[in-house]
Design brief:
The complex is a heterodimer of chains A (about 300) and B (about 425). By secondary structure, chain A is of the alpha/beta class. Helices cover about 35% and strands about 15% of the residues of chain A. In chain A, the strands form two sheets. Chain A has a six-stranded mixed β-sheet with strand order 3-2-1-4-6-5, with helices on both faces. In chain A, a hairpin with a 2-residue loop joins strand 7 and strand 8 (about 220-225). The chains are: A alpha/beta (about 300), B alpha+beta (about 425).
């Protein structure tokens, strides 16, 4: 008797297949690991893909220098537990080199990650970057292939994507460019949480509800930190919140929540009425197509 | 038991695909508040009174500028126990390659027809492509019924014309015809009030009832080796001789102890272990990604195929008869050598002959000496080394291939194997 496969089993098997295509076709790939929940799932998938062997690629993190310390600590600990190599390149260094110039010192560095990422690609000669992006996150991502070709400036040309048929993935990098591979393309936010629950994956503590000083801004909650102080006229309140997504402090907002366990988060996620990015991104509301524009510039 | 249905939506430009998907998501309550608010904001700015549901799928700047869909957009929603993955394919002829991308993994195609336009060349092309890649079910959505006063005769005329076309071209897919107004919502999720004469299922009911079992488990076992795991870590003597063949079972089943054959070399061995992430299991079935270890230390690598010794083996072919869809803006160069990807195997290949090129408008098989983008042709492909090929009808994964351009590594054509030599 063979147990029937669940939706999560199928998503997992497909993701493993995609990771192995990277290993089989690419000379020098890297896996982007930020300490966020999607890349935590990627690491679990990589274990199922390659163990008992080592991962055939290093982990790479582009650090804006504006990340939550809990997440950075988690990133380092997880990489050490796995015994895999972690490469960190920071936007700070790009600023020092003069390749990133900030218009204002307190400007969000989120967008500038693209430059540091491109520099890391050149430094190591990566021909493929594996990322945890999902198609349900955002409408430009909804149009991206599992294997997405980038030119030498790291740019995505949405009008000129490779056809992608069946399970026959073309992971070959074009001359001077590279490919990005998205094993979680068909996963939804709920799938990710269900996978975390099923696999018992550990997460940075800020994913769970905790009291945090916040202000209400533009319909969202903005965390109050040294980097992101309250603006004039704003009232700081200590609220119970959790993060649905973690990223640069200056542009990631928490949501009001009392969910302190994965089971509670799952219940909230299944009942949610606002999309992950809509609830949490302080930078996506500025323009209908901000994600596409950033992707065209080489953003992940 | 949860099931997944992957379906694509296709049809001519302006037949209302984006509106239909918007309606499907809206009425099945799969749209989130902020998405809806964004749509309402944009609709108001453009002077519309009701939310324009077609904005749900328009993701790219150029798409919004031109008011068309360029690339496949994937959307996810649930209804009851079923998860749906929608691939929204563009209608413009120049983007046919994107439509083929969406079609290759779909279990059903929703083919939009504007009841006022009837069948266009693009409707026929999409129906033929859906059939070519073997999509088992077609839902023909006869849309914009509101613009013909919900006249049953207008619907019947489209059904008649499509059946005639289906017979002439030998379409094999099961066909469901549904009159609807995606704009008003009739017969998409809700039945609405305007089509009392139609007694069949709504579109959502068709989607919910379509069988998703492809029977891949009951077919012969195929396992293209993707990667070989050789830890050789000196510290752990147990791993020193470890050799795991990593891959996804594309069809059939395999269990520990069963005899296998490695193709194309023909060497035999038996399975000593099946593992996922180092954890053993007794067997693996179609769809499972596993690592397989063999009794003999065979030098097996990426590009080889494991099959079971007690099942029909695929043909070792050096020449393929295939239906080819040319996908690249640059036409086929008959003297050039391309790289053929079959499963995980890559061999040099040349198009030796074009038997015919299909004229989509007349369904005629026209003699041809060249192939341009979007052409559908029967060709003979000559291979530098043999591949273990199945027929596409029997086994999709081992019956299909891509052609890559060795200069750019772009995917230039997709092939379905119809015969081997």
């Amino acid at each position: 008797m063979i147990a029937p496969r669940t939706h999560l089993d199928r998503l997992e098997a497909e993701a493993i297949h995609i990771l192995r295509e990277v290993a089989g076709q690419c000379q020098n790939p890297a896996l982007l690991f930020s300490g966020g929940k999607d890349s935590i799932c990627l690491l679990r998938l990589a274990e199922k893909t390659f163990r008992p062997g080592r991962f055939p690629f290093p982990l790479l993190h582009i650090d804006t220098g504006h990340n939550y310390p809990e997440v950075i600590a988690f990133r380092d600990r997880r990489a050490a537990e796995l015994g895999e190599r972690l490469i960190v390149r920071s936007v700070e260094d790009s600023i020092a080199r003069g390749t990133v110039r900030l218009a204002r010192p307190d400007e969000s560095r989120n967008r500038h990650q693209s430059v540091t990422l491109r520099e890391a690609i050149e430094e190591f000669g990566f021909d493929c970057l594996i990322g945890g992006a999902r198609r349900d996150e955002e409408k430009a991502r909804a149009k991206e292939r599992v294997f997405s070709v980038r030119d030498e400036f790291g740019q995505w040309d949405p009008k000129n994507q490779r056809p992608e048929l069946w399970r026959l993935y073309n992971a070959k990098a074009p001359a001077g460019g590279h490919v990005r591979a998205f094993p979680l393309s068909d996963w939804t936010e709920l799938d990710v949480w269900q996978y975390i629950a099923r696999e018992g994956l550990e997460l940075p503590s800020i994913y769970f509800a905790h009291p945090r000083p916040c202000v209400r801004r533009g319909g969202l909650l903005a965390p109050v930190t040294e980097l992101t102080p309250a603006r004039e006229g704003e009232t700081v309140e200590t609220l119970w919140v959790r993060f649905r997504t973690v990223g640069d402090i200056t542009c990631t907002a928490p949501v009001a929540s009392r969910a302190r366990t994965i089971a509670e988060i799952l219940r909230e996620t299944a009942a949610t009425t606002v999309s992950e990015r809509g609830a949490t991104r302080l930078d996506d509301q500025t323009h209908e197509a901000s994600m596409e524009q950033r992707k065209r510039e080489g953003y992940f | 038991m949860d099931t997944v249905l992957r379906f694509l939506t296709c049809g001519s430009v302006d037949d209302g695909k984006s509106t239909l998907i918007g309606r499907l998501l809206y009425d099945s309550r799969a749209l989130l508040v902020d998405t809806l608010e964004g749509i309402e904001r944009t609709s108001r700015r453009r002077g519309a009174t009701a939310p324009d549901l077609s904005l749900v799928t328009d993701g790219l700047i150029a798409e919004r500028e031109q008011g068309i869909t360029i690339d496949v957009a994937y959307r996810y929603f649930r209804s009851g126990a079923r998860t749906f993955i929608i691939a929204d394919a563009p209608g413009h002829e120049q983007y046919t390659r994107n439509m083929v991308t969406a079609a290759s993994t779909a279990q059903l195609a929703v083919l939009l027809v504007d009841v006022r336009q009837g069948l266009t060349a693009q409707t026929r092309r999409h129906a033929l492509l859906a059939d070519l890649v073997g999509i088992p079910a077609l839902a023909i959505a006869v849309n914009k019924m509101d613009l013909v006063g919900f006249d049953p005769a207008a619907f019947e005329a489209v059904v008649y014309a499509f059946e005639e076309f289906a017979e002439a071209s030998g379409l094999r897919a099961r066909r469901h015809y549904i009159p609807m107004s995606a704009l008003l919502g009739d017969m998409v999720v809700e039945r609405g009030e305007h089509l009392p004469w139609y007694l069949g299922p709504t579109l959502l009911e068709v989607l919910e009832r379509t069988p998703v079992e492809d029977g891949a488990r009951e077919k012969p076992f195929r396992f293209p080796v993707q990667w070989v795991c050789r830890p050789r870590e000196a510290t752990d003597p147990l791993l020193h001789d470890y050799r795991g063949l990593a891959g996804q079972v594309t069809s059939g089943t395999i269990a520990v102890g069963e005899e296998i054959v490695v193709l194309p070399s023909g060497r035999r061995s038996s399975v000593t272990a099946i593992e996922v992430g180092g954890v053993p299991r007794e067997r693996a079935v179609a769809g499972d990604s596993v690592m397989i270890r063999l009794a003999d230390d065979l030098d097996v690598g990426r590009g080889e195929l494991l099959v079971r010794a007690d099942e029909p083996a695929p043909a070792l072919a050096r020449t393929l008869e295939a239906d080819l869809v040319w996908l690249d803006p640059a036409p086929l160069a008959p003297r050039r050598t391309y790289l053929l990807r079959h499963g995980t195997r890559e061999v040099q290949a040349r198009i030796e002959a074009i038997a015919w090129n299909l004229d989509v408008a007349t369904l005629e098989r026209v003699p041809a000496h060249e192939l341009a983008m979007n052409d559908i042709a029967r060709v003979r492909v000559k291979l530098a080394q043999p591949i273990a090929a199945d027929l596409y009808e029997a086994l999709r994964d081992t019956g299909s291939f891509l052609l890559l351009d060795p200069a750019t590594w772009d995917t230039v054509a997709a092939g379905m194997i119809r015969g081997t030599q």
